[in-house]
Amino acid sequence: MDAKEVNLSKEFVDKISPGTTKLKLPIAGVKRIIAVSSAKGGVGKSTISVNLAIALKKLKYTVGILDADIFGPSIPKMLGISEKPKSEDGKNLIPITKFGIQCMSIGFLVDQDTAMIWRGPMVSSAIRTFTSNVLWKDVDYLVVDLPPGTGDALMTFSQQIQIDGVVIISTPQEIALLDANRGIKMFQKLNVNILGIVENMSSFTSDDGTEHFIFGKDGAKNLSKNLHIDLLGTIPIEIGLREGADHGEPYTEFFEDSVAGKEIINIAKKISEKIK
Ligand code: ADP
Asked: Of 101, 104, 219, 257, which one has the fewest beta carbons inside 10 Å?
């Protein structure tokens, strides 16, 4: 389902998630919630979520990461987590701490093949249960990796949880930007504070030092200008970012002085200044 097809009226949202237009809930143990979203899949939303979490930790904040991407949870793999979370009371889950970051993923709880065929209300209900039963500990910033697109799961989350701001990820490619534009409009309709756009895969520098603009140039910059939304940063294609994600070794943890590492830390600084 996408934002064009649905009527984002109070009645509609109440129908998919009863009562939620009335009340947005904070998450216990969490001071600030930063959501990371992309209207299109495969643009690097999860990679940036993980590296942003690491960057915020390097800025001395206590950080949590919530993988709410019900259709393709990948954060545990990107952090090299293979164990499942435990519960002491049989009700609340204890996040798994890795690289000093508290992590919880909907993938720990929901079988992915089953989740793929769930209808909207089931997705909404899973997210609701999931977000209210995690024992976060003194988290300054909770980075939430939202599901891609503009569907029910995303709307439920935006409607129910007190998000302090959302970061939109896009590549400079025209088709990705069209989707990003749609996503931004949806968040604006839902009254979610948009922190800015991060352009990922903005360019690739080959061994001879030439910069190649594989997905086009300045796309996100122009979109941010047109929509009067901040461009928080531009992250190049670096092989290490991909390798780090595949091997569960987040790039910014080990290579904070790389071009991408520095840029991600800069983005984290901007975000922490915007929502203190
Ligand atoms: P999404 O969460 O938007 O679906 P992912 O974070 O899973 O996207 O990224 C898609 C693929 O691109 C992954 O293999 C990831 O490692 C890779 N990737 C993302 N950003 C970069 C980058 N800047 N440089 C190199 N590889 C990247």
From this structure: 257
The predicted-structure confidence for 222-276, as pLDDT tens digits, reads as follows: 999 999 999 999 999 999 999 999 999 999 999 999 999 999 999 999 999 999 8
Cβ-count burial 55-81 (b if 16+ within 10 Å, e if not): bbbbeebbbbbbbbbbbbbbbbbbbeb
Q: Whose CA is nearest to atom 20 of ligand 1?
A: 44
Amino acid at 40: K
Range of the domain at 220: 25-275
Q: Note whether residue 2 is domain-resident.
A: no
The pTM of the full predicted model, rounded to 2 decimals, is: 0.90
Ligand 1 center–CA 4 separation, angstroms: 27
CATH number at residue 49: 3.40.50.300
- Residue 169 belongs to some domain of the structure: yes
User: Per the domain annotation, does 210 fall within a domain?
Assistant: yes
